[in-house]
Amino acid sequence: MADKDIAVGAIGAFKEEVGSSLGIPGLPTGPGVKMVPSYLVKLLPDLGSKKSYRFFVAIEQPVFLTDHIHTKGFFSEAREADIITGYKEMVAAATQSQVLEMWFPWHTIHSVRSLVFKTASKK
Fold first, then answer.
1. Strand locations in the chain, DSSP E?
2. What are the pLDDT digits (tens) for 58-107?
3. d(CA 11, CA 24)
4. 10-32: b (≥16 Cβ within 10 Å) or e
5. Most buried residue among 41, 62, 78, 123 by CB atoms closer than 10 A?
6. Whether 18 contacts 25, CB under 8 Å
7. Close Cβ partners of 116 (under 8 Å, ≥ 6 residues apart)
8. Cβ atoms within 10 Å, residue 63
9. Of 105, 95, 86, nearest to 40 (Cα)?
């Protein structure tokens, strides 16, 4: 089997405006890669602390387990409203060293919010 060629094809229609910006004939053009869904994990302040909520911007969908959630992302010191409006820039600017894999126990979580979801507007 290893010495034979295997042809893999796709069924679908491509636009004729192809790869002109790259100069590669046959390369379809279109929108870029979809943005990875981001979530805002709002964490409760430590007991006895005078600090406010802490924020963790998750760059993948959290896995909700019995006693904790598991996700990857980074902590942010920005205000909640600033994170909601500017999360795309924050995710793009995050360095690999800032990205952490975290397990948060349920008793430390205030809320988890999708940053990508937008309600349909009524016409």
1. 39-43, 54-58, 63-64, 68-76, 100-105, 109-114
2. 998 999 999 999 999 999 999 999 999 998 888 888 888 899 999 999 99
3. 21
4. eeeeeeeeeeeeeeeeeeeeeee
5. 41
6. yes
7. 35, 37, 38
8. 10
9. 86
